[in-house]
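Support request, please re-run this one:
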Amino acid sequence: MDFKYQDPYPILKDDTEYKKLTSDYVKVEQHGEREILTIDPKGLELLAEEAMADVSFMLRSSHLESLRRIIDDPEATDNDRFVAYNLLQNAAVAVEGALPSCQDTGTAIVMGKKGENVYTGVEDGEYLSKGIYNTYQKKLKIFLKWFL
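Re-run finished. Output below.
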């Protein structure tokens, strides 16, 4: 049998709509024949902070539209509609930023991929973790204001 490498986490076609956070923290530098994308570690921190806030407190538009289609579907059961309606109610509360859409264990798991032409000069995990920490520190303050 011949060796065949399989990327365990391949990047597939992605139709997700993304928002641009900033042009700060990134620059392209020429190193010989190569272009290197240089990222200031604060950019990783900002990215993780914004991403964690988005995934914790907002649902994608396509997901919200799917829930709405369930409610409008004449073939949906009463239970289907009940679950979709409750998920939409939960999303409406979560988007205010005090209660996340899923109250889990509080453990954040992040996976990132970068190619060999991307340089940060630091331990990326530390700055990604700091961004996640920032999110929960800010959201905790909102949570406390909401309930006190």
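The mean pLDDT is 89. The longest helix spans residues 124-147.
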